[in-house]
Amino acid sequence: MIGKIRRKLISLAPTPFLKAVDVVCPICDRPIPDSQKDAHHLIPKSKGGKTTEYLHRICHRQIHALFTETELAVQFNTATALQEHPEMQRFIHWVKSKPNHFYEKSRKSSRLKEI
C-alpha cells in the first residue's frame, strides 16, 4: 500500500502532455528540484498534524535541527512563523546564495541537545 506522501508525490509527477511546474520552497522562496523535495508536516504527526508542504531538504532539516516538535506544533506551524525566527532568518539569508540543488547536513542546535 502506498503512503499518503508518496501518493501526493506521484500525483504531482509531470505527465508527457503537461509541462512540469516548479514547486517553490515556502521557507527560502527558491524552486525545489525533485531530488531535494521533502514533505514537511506543518504540525508534527505526533501532535496530530495532517497538512504537509514541500520544502527543500536542507530547509526541512534545519527546521528540525532548531525546534522541538512541541515548538513546531504550538509556535511555528506556518512558513511565515518559521521565517520570522532570527535563527531561521540567518539560515535563509545564507542558503539563498546557494544553488537550488545544494545540500549540506544540518547540526542539531546546542539548545536541543541539552533537552
From TrEMBL:
It comes from Polynucleobacter campilacus. Residues 25-65 form the HNH domain. InterPro entries: HNH (IPR002711), HNH_nuc (IPR003615). Transmembrane segments: none annotated. This is Alpha/beta hydrolase. It holds the Pfam family HNH. Keywords: Hydrolase. One of its GO terms (molecular function) is nucleic acid binding. The lineage of its organism: Bacteria, Pseudomonadati, Pseudomonadota, Betaproteobacteria, Burkholderiales.
